[in-house]
Amino acid sequence: MKKRADGKKVMLVAGARPNFVKIAPIMRAMDGRFEQFLVHTGQHFHVRMSKVFFDELDIPEPDINLEVGSGRHGEQTAAVMERIEKVFIEQKPELVLVVGDVNSTMAATLASSKLRIPVAHVEAGLCSFDREMPEEINRVVTDVLSDVLFTTEEIAGLNLAAEGIDKKKVHLVGDVMVDTLFDRMGAIDACDVVERLGLEPNEYAVATIHRQSNADDPKVLGTVLSAFDEIADRIRVVFPCHPRTAKRMREFGLGNGVVTIVEPLGYVDFMKLVKSSRLVMTDSGGLQVETTVLEKPCITLRGTTERPVTIEKGSNVLAGTNPDIIIRQAFAVLEGATKNIEVPKLWDGHAAERIANIIGEIVE
Ligand code: UD1
Asked: Which residue in 96, 110, 152, 232 could disulfide with 258, CB within 3.0 to 4.6 Å?
């Protein structure tokens, strides 16, 4: 992918694994139209959480890596703000584009707004209404400060209106994660991860858990893992384990059950694992979207979701972290319970093109 063209400079900010999945199609759609400058904040730094995604998704090398690494929320947010402000001052972008709801997203938005550089937020308005989740706080701050807000589904626009955001700033464009999924479908179909892990298609469940409220509480993490173990008596459960969760499991002495724990996987491997599975159990946000598009039953291990459309139209159910509900929902899927899945409007693989066109109207 070419990164530069003569023209107005758009600065893209990405820091954590799901951000990379989102910026890939946007950079491709903007290629040749704008000068692009990519900032990697360094929030995620492990090869399997970052470099693998750049390689597999053809994302150009970042122009700068701020190397903020891990830390408490205040520390990590402040480190991004302090370092990115200097980059904004030097580079003078016409627009800063941020994605998702991680600490890097909010930090870049705060620094940019204070310099009065316009901010465009991709994935605006996805409210969980749960301020216990750091992601909700990040999103609220990002949305209120953003000048252009790109939404993935209609309900997000209604949420933003309820939060008092001028609807002239809001554009419904669809979901860029779906763009990436469609773009990589050939590689996903050709991928042999199922064989490599010694699994049979449709004869295993995929589990992931990494949210702060689930991973950092020994009681919650222990309970969810014991539910996975009970489900693993009926079907193999494969658990690609996020570094946060791996660290906590070591600290709490958990993870000695029958679940197959593997290292975090790259994008193509992981999507193939999901596509060939019988069901998914997760606390991820993006995976609720991907399972809807792949028509896989998804049991969400949280009490709220910022993507209710995946419940209304997809096969997502909220189980929270109650083991009885998780097990009951999983067994229902194994016993053949199905739902009609409808892919939401504009989840068609062209969201990034719509974003590039709207940005073109603003900065070109
Ligand atoms: C972050 C996001 C979360 C998102 C997730 C996707 C915030 C508040 N949270 O959570 O919304 O769903 O990314 O993965 O921004 N670590 C490593 N190597 C890495 C990255 C992290 O070992 O490359 C470990 C460190 O121990 C670190 C911990 O994971 O302390 C948490 O990392 P952090 O970036 O703070 O949050 P995530 O849990 O990854």
From this structure: 232
